[in-house]
Structure formats: C-alpha cells, structure tokens
User: Which sequence fits this backbone?
C-alpha cells in the first residue's frame, strides 16, 4: 500500500484542448485534497480491481452485491422481530402474561377465551406488518432488477440487472439513465471525457454538474477497448460523505490521483451525454447514497402515544381494583370464610391433597398474592385488548379510502395518493408545520419565459394575479353593502372598480392574461404579447435595441441545440446547464432568432432581418466566454459578427449589471427598475441584459491579459481571471430584463393559501440558490413585497475554529437584533420572513445558538432556508419538532429529502417524479403537491376525529363493562367468581361491540368534505387537540364508571331476591349474568349511536346488528347440548325471554345510563357549541337553498379563514386594503368634484391618479 | 333478466363508489332544542305511567316473611347454637305461626331465604360436575368436584360442594288443623330436569363421609326428580337469596293463621346466616319489588323536570339555530 502511495504521479495534468466548454471548466485540481497520502491507511483501505469482478467474489476483496434492501424484516427475522414489536405494546404484553397464566389454572377464565383473542389481535397486526413489508420488498425488487450494460469479456457489453453488479464491473450508462452504483468515470461520449450529471436526487440542486475522467483513461471510449483493460483502484472505505473521494488509479503501471469529480454517484442521472463508461467502485449498501440514508424509523402518531398513557391509567385502575379484591379476599378469608363450612376450606391440619391455594387460611399471604394475580386477569376487560387491533383495522380501511379518493387522483401521471403506512392517518389532522422542499415539490423544475422589459417597455402583461383577484373580491365585497354613490347603478360601479383596480393595463394584454388557464403550447415559453409575437417587434420603436436584446438571448449562453427528428417543424430544442438558459433559447427562437449550430468557436443564428423582412443566417465568432459563477452572478460572451464588430454581450443579476452600466447606457434604467420590482413580486426570476461594443484594439489588449490569466497556474488564477473580467465587463448599455418563471406545479399557490388559512406554517427548505428560493417564495406567496425580511447569512467561509466562534457571534447578533425588531413591532401584525442560507444555518443550529434561532424562526410568518444539505434538512426538522413540540410534516420528492421525510412526524413523498427514494422513505406519497390540502384538511381532519372518538369510546365501553365485574366481586366476598359466562366475555370485544366502533372509525364525519375545504379553520381542532384532551378522556372514563354503576345496581336491586316471573322462579347467577350482560350490550351500543353524528346504513347495520347478534348468540349458545352450553342451556327461551322484567330492565338501564351523557351533549350543544356543531346546523338550515350562493355562508367561510400573513389570499387581502384606501380618496375627490362641477358623467370618467 | 342483472350490478357499483368516496347517503341528526324538549317530554310521558303500572303490579303481590333461625333454637341452646345444630340427638322440629294479613290468591309460592350465605363463592360454584349429574357414575373425571369428590375411594354422586351442602330444612303448613297441600313438583326449570339431571342417575355414596354437609337424597329417586337438589344446584348470584320450596294450591284469606311445622336442620349458625320462610303470591312482573317502579317514576319525573328546565333555559339564553356568532372565529373578532 505504501508503495502505491509513493508511486503516485505528480506530473502536471494536461487537459485536453479548449473548445466551447473550455471556459466552463472548473479549476483543475492542481491542489490536491490533503488526504492524498492516507491511501492504504485505516479508513482508506479499499482495493478495486477494475474489469476483474471475479476477484471480488472471494475474500479479502469480497464486497457486497449491488442489491439494496429497505425492508424491515426478512423471512427469518420476521417472526421474532414482529412478535417483539407486538409485545412491546404494554397491553399486548399484559395479555400475553394473562394467556401464560391461564395455562397454570390461575386465570378465572378458560384458556381458549384468553388465548384466542390474543392470537387474533396479534395475528392481524403481524399480518399487516407482513403485507406492508412485502410491498417494500416488491419495490426493492423493482429497483434491483433494473438493468445496465455491463462488460463481460472481449469488449462485449450485455444487460445485467443492478443487483448482479459486482465491484470492479465495467458498465456503460446511457443518456438519462441512473447510475446503478458509485462509479469511477473512465470515459464519455465527449472527446475530453466530460459528462453532465443531474444530482437532484442527492442534493436537490437542479443545475447539471460536470464530471470529468482522468486523461489516462480517455482512450477507453469504445466497447472493444475494454477487452484488455486492467487497472487497480485504491481508495477510501465506504462512507456517507457525498462530496469527498480520495483514491488512486493504477493503470498501465502508472498511478493517478482520483478526486470527487471522477466519481459518479448512485441515484444521480446522466444528462446531455450519450454514454459513459465507468467501473463500479462502491456497490449496494456501500454506495454513498445508501450510506446517507437512514433506516426508516417506525413512527407513531400523537394519539397513539397518548393512548399509551390512557392504557397506563387504566392499568393503574386495574391494579387498584385488583389490590382491593386481593385485600378484601384475604380479609374475608381470615375472618369469615373459615366459618363457612359449606366451602370445606383446607385448614392446616387437614389433608394436603386439597390444592386450592386461593383459599387457604393458613397461607394467607400466598392466597392474597394468588388472588391478586387472578384479579389482574379477571379485570383485564378494563384494558381494551381489541383496541389496537380495531385501530389497525380501521386505519387500514381509512388508508384504503384515502387511496381510493378520486379527488386525489392525478390524471396526468395516472397515480393517486398512496398511504404507505397506515400508522399516521390521524396524525394528518394535527399537523402544524409543513417543511417543504422546492424543486419537484412546489416547482416542476421547468423554467418558463414569462415577461420581458425591452428598452423600457414591459411586454407580457402587467396585471398580476393578485391585482386581479383583489379587484374581483372588492367587486363582490362591496356589492352587498349600501354604497352611497348616488345615481350610480351597480353595473357601472363594478365596472368602475374593476377598471380602477386594474388601471394601467391595456385591454388587449389583460385579456391575454385573463385566459391564463390555457396551457402554453411551447414548453418553457408562456408569453403572450402581440407586440412582440409573430415578428411584430419590427414595428417597435427602438428597433436596434430590441434586436440586440434578442441577440444577447441567442448568443450569451452555453447551450447546445438538439435536433429532434420526431418534430416536423423547424423548431429546435436545446440543452443547457440550467433550465433558464433553455427557456431563453426557446424564447429567442420564438422571436425569430434561432440559434441552430455551435462549433468550437462559432455560433450560428438564423436571424429575422427587419430591413429585408427575411430570415438570414449569421455566424458569430465566439472570442471569449466569461463563465457564470455564483459569486460573479453574471455571464458574458465576446463575439464578433460578420462585419468584424466585437460585442460583449452580458446577462446577469440586475444589481450587478446596473453597477456596470455606462453613463450613456442608463436610458432605460428607471423604467426597467420599476418593471423589475413588479416582476419580482410575482415571483419571477429576473436577469438583466446588457451589451457593449468593443474596439478591436481594446479587445486585443484585453485578450492578452485574459489569456495570460487563464494560463496561470495556482491559487491566484481565479483572482486574475476575475480582474480580467472586471476590466472588460464595464460601460455596458442596458437593454432590458427578462423574467422567467420557475414554473410552479399545478395548484400550488391555492394549496399553500388554503393550508395557511387552516393555520399551518410552511417552511421552505431547498438546496437551491438563495435567489431562486426567494423567487419561489414570492411565486407561491410565502413572501410578499410588504413583508419585512430578515436575511441571515455569513460574510465569509469558516476556516479555523476561532473564526467559527466569531461567526457564531455574528449570527447570534443578527438573530438577536432581528428578534428585537420582531418583538417591538409584534403588535402591528407586520409579517416577517426569515431567509437563511446553509452556511449560516450550520452555525445557527449549533447547540448554543439554536434556541434563539428557533425562537426567531417560529415567530416569523414564513421561513426560507436555501442551500441546505440533506443532513441539514433533517436536522432542522428534528430541531423544530423538538423545540416547538408540534407535529411536523415534511414533503419532498428527491433522495435529498429522505432524511427530512424520515425525521418529520409525517413524511410525504411526491411520486410524480422519477426518483423513488423519497417515496420509499415516506409515509404518504402524493402525485402532486396540491393534494396535500385535501389530504390534510379533509382526510386528516376526519381521521383525527375518527380515531380520537374511537379510542374514547373504547375506553368507555371497557370501563363500563370491566367495572361491573369488579362490583360483583364485592358481593362474592372477592372470591373471584365471574358474573358472566366465559364466552359472553370473549364475545364482548371480538364480536358484540367491535363492528360499530370500526364503522365509527371508518365512516364518521362531522361535516362533509366540501365543508371541510370551505372552512379550513375547522382543521384547527386537530392541532388544538380538542377531541382528545385529557379532560375528554377523563370525562369518558367517568361516563363509563356511571354506566357500570347504573347497570350493576339496577340489576342487583330489581332482580334480587324476589321472583323473576309469574311462575315464582327466582333469578340465579346465570340468568342475572345474562340479563346484566344484555344491559351492557344495549348500553354501549346505544352510546355509540348517540356518539355518532353521521349515520349511513353501515352504521345502522353494525349498531343494531350487534345488539341483534347478542340475542342470536344467546339463542344459539343455549341451543347447544347442555354439556357444551352449561347453565346457559335454553336460557333465553326458557328463562329470561318470557320475563317481562328482563325487557323492562333493559330499557330502563339504557335510558338511565345514557342520561348523563345525553344531558351533557344537550348542554354543550345548546349553550357551548363547538364549531362543527354550528356548521352542521348551518348546513341543515341552508339545505334547501344553494349553499354556495348564500351570503351568510360565504361570509362565514371567509371569516373562518385563519388570519394569516402568507398565502395568495393574504396578499389579496393586503391589496384590498390598499385599494380601499384609494377608493376612499377617490370617493372624497368625486364628492368634491360633484360639488364643483355640474356634469356628473364627465367627473366619473375623469381618470384618477 | 340481463337488464335487471346489469341494473343491479350498476347500483352495486355506484354504492361501492359512494362508499369509497365517503359520500354514502347519511342521516345526520342534529340535536335541536325542539328535539331535546320532545325527547325529555316523551321520556317523562312514557316512564311515569310505566312506573305506576309496575308499582301497582308490585303492590298487588302479597308477601309474608318469617325469620325462624333464632326462634327455632330452644332457649337453652341459644348461647351455643352451633352445638345445638350439630348435635343429631336433639330433635330439630319447630313450629311457627304466620298470619296472613291480606288475601292471597293461589298459587302461593313458598320460598326459603338465606342471608349471608355465599353460594356464589368461586370455590363453591366450581365444585360440581355437570357431566356426572347427567351421566352418573359413567362419567369418571370429577376432579372439578374437589373437595367432595370421593369417599372411601368410591365416587360420590352427586359430587361437589353444592350438592353436599344441600339445604335440608323442611316445612309443612297447617291451616285450621288441615294440612295445606304443598305442591313440590315443578319447582325447577324444565330444561334442568329434562336435560341436565340424568333420569337414570341415582344418588350414590352420598353424605356417607365423615363430614355430613346438608340434606340427604333418596338413592331410589333419580336425580331428575330430585327437584330440591336441582333448585339448590342453580347457585344464586348474591349472598342473600330465595329458593323455591313449593307451591300452595289453595287461596289464603286475610287473617288466616298458618302453622308451619319445620325441621330446623340446616346449619347457618356457624357463619351467622339468617333463615327465613317466605310466602308470596306473584304478579305478571314476578315478586314484590318496588325498585323498578320507583326508578321508572323517578326517571320519568326527572325527564319532565329536565324538559321544563331546558325550556326555561332555552327561553332565557336562546341561541338561534345555526347562529354564526358562536363560531370561534366570530367570537374571536367580537372579543378582539
């Protein structure tokens, strides 16, 4: 190993000759990573024999196959692990113990009646686990069976499934394919061995990254070359770090250092490159992408966690009554039972064969302990055994209903919402915070050319959607009110308002914008303005500037045209580093400047010549290309046209360009600035275009400096290049700006709006640039122009520890000053937005700063984090969850969101895109972001309510039933005798009360889905947890206690000791048991009928059917021969059926036990109604009219929206306020003019300023 | 036919669709004040009459209770009743006088009532073998009868504590020197006699041990005819219970005095249990028990009161139906 290190080559790397991409090339890696000489040391010991995968089948070079597994269990581990999971639940463990005890005759019931329900419950839960894991397995199988071309021998490449790939395999990956594992790039279809890679799944960044092979391996660009290829790679061991790679390639007896730019990571995608050859370095679970992913944690909902506490509470009740029983029993045993000769209790002197340890007066303590254990099992009905299984069943059904919801079906992708785990349905109803990814989640990763401002004139429409909506709202709003503008009829007023509010846009443009539902015909081009389209721009005023503007668009880029055979038209499509450039190229093509060919130094453009009205082909010589970088924020090309004129064409961020304008180039600056701000508010990305004509002499002078700078080697190179660029990029002439839209997915602004109204907070976490993030923030109304923005950022990079400390302080100071500001003005409801970038976030999330940071962030209306790494996304999610204690939902689409999705209480993956990682890690997958609204506001709300109602009812019914067992003990001297037959008890949870509660859990609705959507504020019931508060839980337990008392006492006092029927027979233990049990069944089933607010036939069937089932059961059980049915034999027919008392007692008990609850709901409804109650009443009242037209309905709907600072409506709201103020002024001025002028018409027509 | 099938198929499909879209037609009852008042009134109007009828039925039952456990112990033995009852040499016969205070129509049911007797004790209840009762000695597994299972290595039929502790006081009734006919047949449930106690099963080895519990059985009579045993084997639910002894087929007039000659054999003195003799008629509702009637009347009247209170409250603090000002957002805006 050490030898390898010493043999490494130190020679200068000679890169292939420059051609068109030369300027894009990142700095070559003359400076090698520091860890070069660690190869062979611990942590860097991996050896890969390229093209010799068979060597990796045996130790010591045996590495895993390339298959991945996301399943929780395998065939062997399923049983033990799943059982362990099941019995981790306290209740299940308790029932397991009870079942074990039943084997030793300790239990008061028969074995079957204890074991059967447990097996049933655990079996169903495990079945569910198995099915879910099976689905995961199938998905893995799908990924593992994807194929890739792999080298077998003699230069032959055959399809090989991913899972069969071994380290050392040479593979050929074609365009737009995913890399099957971490590959070392050997060569590509480009001569200089570059390839473009999209890493969206890894880090969420949308721009393509360039990877570059070693020069030594450039020759390997044909299939045949690989027949003899042999090389050895020594590199670092598998690790999760995406951005580092240290290794050596030994090839042809020479050693070459490797860097991350030769490593192609799994889950990224080959773009713009026809094919590459690579060798597998890390496979399967060793790949960086897989190492980066964490095992999906099993999540439990809040309600379920609280349910544990309820179980504990019931347990303590159980222990308490068991203690009472056991103490009572031993007291009886000591003082009384010894005298009960009819028991023949064993006494110390008598025979030993009597082994009744429960009643042995000489062993009092032993008897007490045994009685205690028996009581624990006996009162086990206090613990709802079937609660978990019923909840699982209900959740599976709820999941099915969510999956089947037609409103959540996306016709475009033919996918619908998938609830991937059913554990979290009700958690959807309690979400308070949404952490969203940007690319692929909110946006489609597609840029659209939307507007431009050329030579001070804005094209593409002025009016924004906000303005439009605000004016419509005002029209609608003011109509119902008496508006004292004399003699003006409604139509005129509306018209006037409309005209007023959208003043300054010509009808023609407005109409174009009004038809916004039309999809753009051309992808990436959503621009309608007749002044520019169809070559109409030739009629424009500043023709030369317009032409120049289009030229910048067509020339200043790094794209390449793609010839598409399938298209019959002469329209080309393009590929470029960023989607923005593509949209510019498409736009310039639409305007008549079609870029159609590029060679190493020439750019060919078909131009429409306004003078000749013909299309001419022009070629421009590309002299230099000054690349784009995030620090420069601009890009320029220097071209000379056919006449030898040299132009510098520049595009860049507006601030950068405006700083570099010549004095005579500022003609349009003012107008353009205005347009810029309006574009920015609409969330459009803007770039300014400028140009400069350069004298040949000046160019020559500059070019020598630039060439020199480029040839420099060493750290100062960048500085020199920067200086050189500065020299030439000055004295520019401003042409205009373009605005592109990072196209939002369908329905995203509306969805965000509704979610904001429902009181949810939305944070945007993106790996993208700050500018892009802010643009999208505007586009989806998370930010607005009048919002106070806090920017947290670092001025420089941290290099040493002391600097980190200083930065920490810097950030802390920024946070504190922002927070102070926020507190000072906290009252006037000015919205605040917080924008923080990844580097600052790294500091801000440190231990000693994070509390301040989170305090600030939580108080801001919207938070946008840009340039965050996947790890940071997960970290933010965790911290927010911990700090606020609120339920968080993370939504994303790429592998870079996996951490966040797993960390959040609910993870949602977008399934529309190709990558499956996010979906695989998620709890719910949506085809589109907009479905989140319905998922949360409708299904979440319903499921939350259903599950909480269900749990409460379960507690009630088990307390009501379990306690009657305890009361009876008081009458049996705590001897452990049971009032009911074993099978009644077994039936209780399994059959007789289970169906109605499942129906409740699946079908209950407080209000219909439409109303849920119309009144988003109803959603707040979930986050405020009104349905599952401790007061409710305790209330229901008390209700259960009351019910049990009523049932038991009424039966005892009415049925004993006098005759039951006219024939003088009295009630014995069995008939009393059956009658009491009937009362229990009736009461708990009627209680659920009172509790349900939405009865379909299913509910009716299950409730009344359960009661009927009890009689059928009793009849059937009684019809069995007596050796099976025992004392229940013919009980119903002969004993209790003909007894009038039996039926009367049932009615009485049901009424009395439900009375307290009934009075409670009557009082609540009448005097302290909840929101859903009122809405139900409103719904009933308005049933006849059409609800949507009812003024009250609409008004309430609007009132119900949470006051929010983000979202489209909030912006509209703000606009309405500002419009109304202007209205007021207008009114005043009109009144004045009315008094001044006699001609009314002329006044109203006066344009208002 | 095909049409109908298709039609049915379609309706089924639509129903399933409605189910999956969670929009099945549903009834959504809303509790309005009108409904509430109606329900309370209705409950009041139902329960009060029912309660009154029940009370009337209960009052029509005539019941005479006579506690005899103490009285039937001769004065001399009252200090140590236990030794009295355990001493077989002392005659246990005793006479009681019962005065009929009201006309009693036949059939008049004779019950014996035991108090503080835990027939529902788990050890006691489980100590029986239903199979042996039905099949007799053919059935061997009588381990459930512990501790009264075997005697001298021979099985006991009927085994178990319950049978062993059979109540064995006996009563004869004399009115005006003539013995009243007491029908002691058909005092047990028919299903018990026919299906649970064997017709060919005769008592065997019963009460032969060192410890004699309660009554003895005639080994000649099959178990299915031993109705006292059958009644006794139906264990009572509570520690204070009555069991049917027989029926008097003649009417008793008011002021009749009945002499009860009884054999006070059963030991309740060890544990301080009471023994009572009950003569009672019955109504359609069974025996004399006012609890149900009272409960109905109380529930009925409280419903009426609730209806009135609620009406008053509703009139005073009237909340208009579907009034939007109660919505939380409206309240918020009102207070803010």
Assistant:
């Amino acid at each position: 190993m050490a030898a390898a290190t010493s043999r490494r080559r130190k020679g200068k790397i000679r890169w292939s000759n420059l051609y068109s991409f030369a300027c894009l090339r990142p700095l070559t890696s003359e400076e090698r990573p520091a860890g070069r000489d660690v190869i062979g040391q611990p942590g860097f010991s991996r050896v890969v024999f390229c093209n010799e995968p068979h060597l990796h089948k045996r130790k010591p070079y045996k590495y895993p196959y390339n298959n991945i597994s996301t399943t929780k269990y395998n065939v062997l581990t399923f049983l033990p692990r799943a059982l362990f999971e099941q019995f981790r639940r306290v209740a299940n463990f308790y029932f397991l113990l009870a079942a074990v005890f039943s084997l030793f005759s300790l239990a008061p019931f028969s074995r079957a009646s204890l074991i059967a329900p447990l097996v049933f419950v655990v079996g169903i839960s495990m079945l569910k686990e198995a099915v879910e894991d099976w689905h995961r397995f199938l998905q893995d199988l799908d990924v593992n069976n994807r194929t890739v071309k792999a080298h077998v021998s003699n230069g032959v490449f055959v399809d090989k499934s991913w899972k069969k790939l071994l380290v050392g395999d040479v593979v050929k990956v074609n365009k737009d394919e995913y890399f099957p594992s971490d590959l070392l790039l050997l060569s590509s279809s480009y001569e200089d061995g570059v390839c473009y890679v999209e890493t969206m799944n890894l880090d969420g960044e949308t721009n393509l990254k360039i990877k570059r092979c070693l020069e030594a391996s450039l020759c390997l660009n044909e299939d045949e070359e690989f027949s003899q290829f042999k090389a050895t790679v020594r590199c670092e061991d598998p690790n999760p770090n995406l951005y580092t790679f240290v290794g050596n390639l030994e090839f042809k007896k020479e050693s070459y250092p490797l860097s991350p730019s030769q490593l192609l990571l799994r889950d990224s995608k080959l773009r713009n490159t026809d094919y590459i050859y690579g060798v597998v370095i890390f496979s399967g679970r060793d790949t960086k992408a897989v190492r980066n992913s964490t095992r999906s944690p099993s999540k439990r909902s809040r309600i379920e966690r609280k349910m544990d506490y309820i179980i504990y509470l019931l347990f303590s009740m159980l222990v308490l009554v068991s203690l009472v029983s056991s103490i009572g029993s031993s007291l009886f045993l000591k003082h009384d039972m010894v005298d009960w000769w009819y028991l023949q209790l064993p006494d110390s002197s008598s025979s030993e064969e009597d082994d009744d340890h429960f009643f042995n007066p000489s062993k009092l303590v032993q008897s007490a302990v045994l009685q205690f254990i028996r009581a624990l099992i006996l009162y086990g009905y206090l613990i709802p055994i079937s609660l978990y299984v019923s909840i699982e069943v209900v959740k599976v059904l709820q999941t099915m209903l969510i999956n089947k919801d037609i409103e959540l079906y996306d016709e475009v992708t033919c996918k619908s919402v998938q609830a991937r785990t059913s554990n979290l349905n009700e958690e959807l109803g309690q979400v308070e915070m949404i952490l969203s990814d940007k690319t692929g989640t909110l946006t489609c990763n597609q840029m659209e050319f939307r507007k431009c401002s050329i030579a001070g004139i804005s094209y593409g429409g002025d009016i924004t959607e906000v303005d439009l909506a605000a004016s419509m709202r005002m029209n609608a709003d003011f109509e119902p009110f008496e508006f004292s503008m004399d003699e003006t009829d409604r139509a005129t007023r509306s018209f006037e308002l409309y005209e007023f509010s959208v003043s300054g846009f010509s009808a023609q443009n407005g109409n174009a914008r009004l038809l916004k539902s039309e999809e753009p015909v051309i992808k990436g081009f959503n621009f309608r303005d007749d002044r520019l389209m169809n070559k109409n721009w030739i009629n424009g005023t500043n023709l030369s500037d317009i032409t120049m503007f289009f030229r910048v668009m067509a020339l200043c880029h790094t794209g390449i045209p793609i010839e598409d055979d399938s298209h019959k038209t002469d329209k080309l499509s393009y590929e470029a580093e960023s989607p923005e450039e593509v949209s510019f190229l498409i736009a310039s093509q639409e305007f008549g400047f079609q870029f159609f060919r590029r060679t190493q130094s020439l750019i060919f453009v078909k131009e429409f010549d306004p003078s000749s009205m013909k299309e001419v082909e022009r070629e421009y010589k590309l002299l230099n290309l000054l690349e784009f970088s995030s620090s420069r924020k601009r890009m320029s090309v220097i071209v000379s046209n056919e006449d030898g004129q040299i132009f510098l064409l520049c595009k860049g961020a507006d601030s950068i360009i405006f700083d570099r304008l010549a004095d005579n180039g500022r003609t349009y600056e003012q107008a353009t600035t205005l347009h810029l701000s309006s574009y920015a508010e609409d969330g459009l990305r803007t770039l300014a275009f400028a140009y400069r004509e350069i004298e040949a002499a000046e160019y020559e002078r500059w070019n020598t400096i630039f060439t020199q700078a480029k040839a420099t080697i060493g750290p100062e190179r960048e500085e020199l290049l920067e200086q050189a660029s500065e020299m030439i990029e000055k004295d520019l002439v401003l042409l205009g700006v373009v605005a592109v839209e990072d196209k939002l997915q369908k329905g995203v602004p509306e969805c965000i709006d509704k979610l904001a109204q429902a009181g949810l907070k939305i944070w945007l976490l993106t790996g993208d640039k700050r500018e892009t993030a802010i643009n999208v923030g505007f586009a989806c109304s998370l930010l607005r122009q009048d919002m106070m923005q806090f920017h947290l950022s670092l001025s420089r990079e941290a290099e040493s520890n002391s600097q980190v400390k200083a930065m920490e302080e810097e950030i802390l100071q920024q946070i504190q000053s922002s927070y102070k500001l926020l507190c000072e003005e906290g009252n006037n409801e000015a919205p605040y937005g917080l924008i923080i970038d990844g580097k600052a976030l790294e500091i801000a999330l440190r231990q000693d700063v994070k509390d301040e940071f989170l305090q600030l962030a939580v108080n801001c209306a919207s938070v946008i984090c840009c340039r965050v790494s996947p790890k940071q996304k997960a970290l933010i999610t965790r911290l927010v969850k911990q700090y606020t204690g609120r339920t968080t939902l993370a939504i994303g689409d790429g592998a870079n969101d996996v951490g966040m999705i797993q960390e959040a209480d609910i993870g949602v993956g977008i399934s529309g895109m190709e990558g499956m990682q996010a979906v695989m890690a998620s709890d719910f997958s949506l085809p589109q972001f907009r479905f989140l609204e319905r998922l949360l506001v409708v299904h979440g709300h319903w499921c939350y309510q259903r599950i909480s109602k269900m749990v409460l009812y379960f507690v009630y019914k088990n307390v009501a039933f379990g306690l009657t067992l305890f009361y009876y003990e008081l009458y049996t001297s705590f001897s452990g005798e049971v009032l009911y037959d074993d099978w009644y008890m077994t039936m209780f949870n399994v059959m007789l009360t289970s169906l109605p509660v499942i129906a409740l859990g699946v079908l209950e609705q407080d209000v219909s889905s439409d109303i849920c959507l119309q009144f988003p504020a109803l959603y707040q019931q979930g986050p405020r947890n009104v349905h599952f508060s401790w007061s409710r839980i305790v209330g229901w337990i008390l209700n259960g206690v009351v019910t049990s008392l009523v049932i038991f006492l009424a039966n005892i006092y009415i049925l004993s000791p006098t005759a039951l029927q006219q024939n003088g027979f009295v009630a014995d233990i069995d008939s009393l048991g059956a009658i009491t049990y009937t009362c229990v069944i009736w009461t708990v089933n009627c209680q659920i009928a009172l509790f349900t607010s939405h009865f379909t036939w299913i509910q009716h069937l299950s409730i009344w059917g359960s009661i009927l089932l009890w009689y059928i059961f009793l009849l059937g059980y009684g019809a069995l021969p007596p050796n099976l049915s025992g004392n229940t034999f013919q009980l119903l027919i002969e004993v209790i059926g003909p007894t009038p008392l039996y039926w009367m007692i049932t009615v009485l008990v049901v009424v009395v036990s439900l009375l307290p609850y009934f009075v409670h709901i009557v009082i609540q409804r009448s005097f302290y109604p909840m929101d859903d109650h009122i809405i139900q009443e409103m719904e009933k009242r308005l049933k006849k009219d059409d609800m949507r037209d009812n003024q009250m309905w609409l008004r309430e709907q609007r009132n119900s929206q949470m006051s929010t600072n983000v979202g489209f409506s909030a912006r509209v709201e703000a606009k309405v306020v500002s419009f109304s103020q202007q209205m007021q002024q207008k009114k005043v001025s009109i009144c004045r003019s009315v008094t001044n002028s006699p001609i009314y018409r002329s006044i109203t027509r006066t344009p208002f300023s | 036919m095909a049409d109908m099938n298709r039609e049915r198929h379609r309706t089924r499909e639509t129903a399933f669709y409605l189910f999956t879209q969670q929009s099945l037609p549903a009834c959504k009852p809303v509790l309005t004040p009108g409904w509430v008042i109606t329900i309370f009134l209705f409950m009041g109007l139902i329960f009060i009459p029912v309660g009154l009828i029940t009370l009337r039925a209960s009052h029509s039952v005539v019941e005479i209770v006579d506690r005899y456990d103490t009285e039937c112990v001769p004065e001399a033995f009252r200090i140590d009743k236990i030794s009295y009852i355990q001493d077989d040499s002392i005659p246990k016969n005793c006479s009681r006088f019962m005065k009929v205070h009201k006309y009693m129509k036949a059939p008049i049911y004779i019950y014996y009532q035991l108090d503080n007797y835990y027939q529902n004790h788990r050890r006691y209840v489980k100590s029986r073998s239903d199979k042996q009762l039905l099949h007799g000695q053919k059935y061997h597994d009588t381990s459930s009868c512990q501790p009264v299972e075997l005697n001298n290595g021979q099985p006991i039929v009927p085994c178990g504590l319950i049978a062993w502790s059979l109540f064995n006081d006996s009563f004869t009734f004399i009115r005006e020197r003539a013995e009243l006919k007491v029908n002691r047949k058909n005092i047990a449930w028919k299903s018990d006699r026919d299906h649970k106690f064997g017709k060919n099963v005769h008592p065997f080895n019963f009460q032969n041990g060192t410890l004699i519990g309660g009554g003895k059985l005639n080994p000649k009579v099959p178990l299915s005819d031993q109705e006292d045993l059958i009644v006794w084997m139906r264990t009572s639910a509570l520690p204070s219970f009555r069991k049917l002894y027989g029926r008097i087929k003649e009417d008793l007039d008011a002021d009749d005095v009945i002499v009860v000659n009884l054999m006070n054999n059963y030991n309740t003195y060890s544990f301080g249990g009471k023994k009572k003799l009950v003569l009672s008629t019955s109504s359609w509702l069974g025996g004399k028990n006012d609890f149900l009637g009272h409960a109905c009347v109380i529930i009925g009247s409280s419903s009426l009161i609730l209806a009135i209170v609620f009406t008053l409250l509703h009139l005073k603090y009237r909340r208009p139906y579907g009034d939007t000002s109660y919505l939380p957002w409206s309240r918020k805006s009102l207070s803010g």
